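Hey, quick one: can you model this chain's 3D structure?
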Amino acid sequence: MIPLRSSEPHYRAPTVTLLLIVANVLVFLYELSLPSWMLNRFISLHGIVPDHLNLSSIVTSMFIHGGFLHILGNMWFFWIFGRGIEDILGHGKFLFFYLACGVAAALAHVLLNFNSTVPTVGASGAIAGVMGAYLVKFPRARIVTLVPIIIFLTTVDIPAAFLLLYWFAIQFFNGVGSVGYSQASSGDVAWFAHVGGFIAGIALILLLPNKQRARSYY
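Sure thing. Here's the predicted structure for all 218 residues.
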C-alpha cells in the first residue's frame, strides 16, 4: 500500500520538511558522484556501525540513502506525514522532533545489534517517528492509498490509524523474525530502528507543546 495524500489540511508552509528533503536529495546526489570504493568508505564512515559506533554518525546516517527506491520511498512518506506534524509543532520544534526521533531509532538499532559491523543508513527511523506522531494527532484523517488488487491498482481512502498501525505491525513482526540473524541476511532493513523511531514519535508528540485545532472528517 502506497499513501498518495492525506485529507488533513495544513495552515503553514512546510519549510523544515522541504529543507530536510532537499538536504537528503543533495547528499544522495553527492553519493552518486562518488566511485564505488569511495562511496563504500563514505557509508562506512558516516553510517551507523554498531560494533564501533561513531556518535556523529547517529546524525549523519539520517541523510544517507542506499539507492533510488530507498530515498524515494523515505522522502515520499515524509512528505505525506511530515507536513501535518510540522504544522502543529512549528518549524523549530519540528526539526528538534525529527532529529530526536532519528537518534532514538539509531539507539534502538544499536542496542539490538551491538555486534553488527554492517553500516546502517537512511532517514526511515526519523520518518517512523513522524508517522507515530501522526497516529496520535490525526488518527481519523483519511489517507488516499494506492492498493494492488491481484493484477490491478486502485485507490482507497484508509483511516490514518489503520494504515499506520498496519505499517508498524509489519516493522515489529519482521523485527522479531530477524532476531538472531545479521542485518545483511534479513533483507538489509533495520526493522527495530523503525520500531524505536515510531515509539519515540508517539512519546515526544505527547510531551512537546503543540497546536490543537478543530477539524472535521468525512
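One thing worth noting: Residues 2-207 form a domain with the Rhomboid-like fold fold (CATH 1.20.1540.10).
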